């Protein structure tokens, strides 16, 4: 595994094109990282943007909205956060998206990831999907942005691959239909919660072409074409791909702020794969303490 080296397959220009970009935040509330983590999204949304904050409301939706609104305003005092609260167990209906025409960006917030997938697994409502809005996902909102969303779990065939308290109320590692905003699977809180082994497991078990685990206080910006990603913030993004021609092995590479890498299932040239040939993926070796 090699950390911090530019991906040799990222042959596109290093500048991420403008347009309907996607911004994936790995979680974290460090005020010192807020500008790097949220600033690119807010700038993409324009001047004095109105930002829809979609929250699955588990009873504390108003408090959660206030928390996100404060962070957004700390980065751009002219932005206007707009609450889009979805009661737990309900669908994100058209009534909640009635003001979509006035929004300049959409932030899908954090919480219980399976609940967000149940709300959004069928896709954004037409009133939002038809808009060319920049999309930001924070924690759960980042996970469900994927085409194949890793929603939780801590066991693979009954064997622990990450800490139980990261399981999102699921036992076995589970991949579901996501929003398809990005062509790779996403896990979050990577270094802080030890979730990289879970992503490795999902890539191998579910034959996923690419996965990215994002640290807290870190953001991955994906261009409108879904081909190039840039890392922002204080941590790293960890790219996981199947090792070519080696069943059950993966290639793991880590990228820091300012570095770019290709996405979309393209093959890469990389160092030695993680895990012995023919074995289960090497997950516990990648674990960090909480």
Task: Summarize this structure as a short list of keywords or feature phrases.
17 strands; 290 residues; alpha/beta; single chain; five-stranded mixed β-sheet; disordered C terminus; 19% helix; eight-stranded mixed β-sheet; Rossmann fold
Please tell me about this protein's structure.
With 290 residues, the protein is an alpha/beta fold. It has one domain (2-286): Class I glutamine amidotransferase (GATase) domain (Rossmann fold, 3-Layer(aba) Sandwich), CATH 3.40.50.880. The protein starts with a strand and ends in a 28-residue tail after the last strand. The model is unreliable at 1-19 and 266-290 (pLDDT under 50). A hairpin with a 5-residue loop joins strand 13 (218-222) and strand 14 (228-233). The relative contact order is 0.19. The protein contains seven helices and 17 strands.
Strand order of the largest sheet: 4-3-5-6-2-13-14-17
CATH class: Alpha Beta
Specify the biggest β-sheet: 8 strands, mixed
Helix content: 10-25%
CATH level-two architecture: 3-Layer(aba) Sandwich
Distance between the termini: 21 Å
Which structural category do the helix and sheet elements fall into? Answer: alpha/beta
Q: Overall pLDDT, averaged?
A: 85
| Beta-strand fraction estimate | 25-35%
Task: Give the low-pLDDT segments.
Answer: 1-19, 266-290
Concise account of the structure shown:
The protein is an alpha/beta fold and about 290 residues long. It has helices at about 35-45, 60-75, 115-120, 125-130, 140-145, 190-195, 195-205; strands at about 1-5, 20-25, 50-55, 80-85, 105-110, 135-140, 150, 155, 160, 175, 185-190, 210-215, 220, 230-235, 235-240, 250-255, 260. The strands form 4 sheets. An 8-stranded mixed β-sheet has the order 4-3-5-6-2-13-14-17.
